[in-house]
Design brief:
This protein is an alpha/beta fold and 269 residues long. It is built from eleven helices and twelve strands. 44% of the residues are buried. It binds NADPH dihydro-nicotinamide-adenine-dinucleotide phosphate (NDP). The site of NADPH dihydro-nicotinamide-adenine-dinucleotide phosphate has 28 residues, from helix 5, helix 6 and helix 10. Keywords: Amino-acid biosynthesis, Aromatic amino acid biosynthesis, NADP, Oxidoreductase. It comes from Salinimonas iocasae. Homodimer.
Length: 269
């Protein structure tokens, strides 16, 4: 039986095993998918033990190990390179291929909302790992302009310098006031602490979608704020989670699982 796993710490609440089992059921594929929560110092050992098993095909990696997973990969896709983080590993011909599918998941879920990214002005709030993973897929989706802002502006500037295309710009307070974004994405971890990032210079009046990468049973503070300030609609990151998992599943199995029934089922929990 093909073996898969997700590595992270804490890992107890991860939805990844449930999501991947649902994908596998769509194709009647028998798989095992376990949660592995190594101690801080034991990630590399645990990963190597997992892949020593001849049946081990691939794994997902979540916080805090995504940067260290990148160090373990023999090859990287473009999104992983720019993100400096790997969330999917695939063992092929004894080599570990590293991918970052978070941004692919984000783009797919924005499309799930009926929103196109091509020729849109997108504002990305936050410049951590998730933001880094999103930048390359957003640019690939053909956005007209991608502005990045962050509590620590140097990190936003650094990303734009690395990307080095004229339509990816770091914006601080004065610039934000006149940006008029069509799509505003919260990639900060503020929602996890039931907080808002600083939004006072950001206008939601022309915003057709306010997207929070965090997810919870109830709308996040960011979603509620955005709609109150004029955003046409808002969404949380549950669909992104399922879509990034689907992209990983495709890498491992070459199959394209249906995501909608999985998202709907998780919403009912
Ligand atoms: P990181 O720790 O790498 O980055 C955190 C970011 O949030 C930084 O830009 C940080 O700013 C900013 N931040 C944190 N607290 C605040 C605050 N109170 N006000 C303003 N900015 C703040 O985290 P990740 O990038 O890995 O994750 C970010 C979010 O994305 C999390 O909510 C995570 O759950 C979500 N996520 C969702 C996924 C999905 O599939 N739905 C996948 C991956 C992530 P600074 O640089 O100044 O510290």
């Amino acid at each position: 039986m093909n073996k898969f796993a997700v590595f992270g710490n804490p890992i107890a609440h991860s939805l990844s095993p449930t999501i991947h089992q649902m994908f596998a059921e769509q194709y009647s594929l028998p798989i095992s998918y376990e949660k592995i929560g190594p101690d801080e110092n034991d990630f590399e050992n645990a990963l190597s033990t997992f892949f020593d098993d001849a049946d081990a095909v691939g794994c997902n990696v979540t916080a805090p190990f995504k940067g260290r997973a990148l160090q373990q990969a023999d090859t990287l896709n473009k999104a992983a390179e720019l993100a400096g983080a790997v969330n999917t590993l695939y063992k092929k011909d004894r080599r570990l291929q590293g991918f970052n599918t978070d941004g692919i998941g984000l783009v797919a879920d924005i499309n799930n909302q009926g929103v196109e990214l091509a020729d849109k002005k997108v504002l990305l709030i936050g410049a951590g790992g998730a933001a880094r993973g999103a930048v390359h897929p957003l640019l690939e989706a053909g956005v007209k302009a991608l502005a990045i802002t962050n509590r620590t502006m140097e990190r936003a500037t650094q990303i734009c310098e690395e990307v080095s295309v004229s339509h990816c710009i770091a914006l601080d307070k004065p610039g934000l006031m006149s940006f008029d974004a069509d799509i505003i994405i919260n990639s900060t971890s503020a929602s996890l602490h039931n907080q808002l990032p600083d939004l006072q210079y950001i206008s939601f009046v022309k915003c057709e979608l306010a997207y929070d990468m965090a997810y919870s049973k109830d709308p996040t503070l960011f979603m509620a704020y955005a709609e109150k300030e004029g955003a046409t609609m808002s969404a949380d990151g549950l669909g992104m989670l399922v879509e990034q998992a689907a992209a990983a599943f495709t890498i491992w199995t070459e199959k394209l699982p249906q995501t909608r029934p999985v998202i709907d089922k998780l919403r009912q929990r």
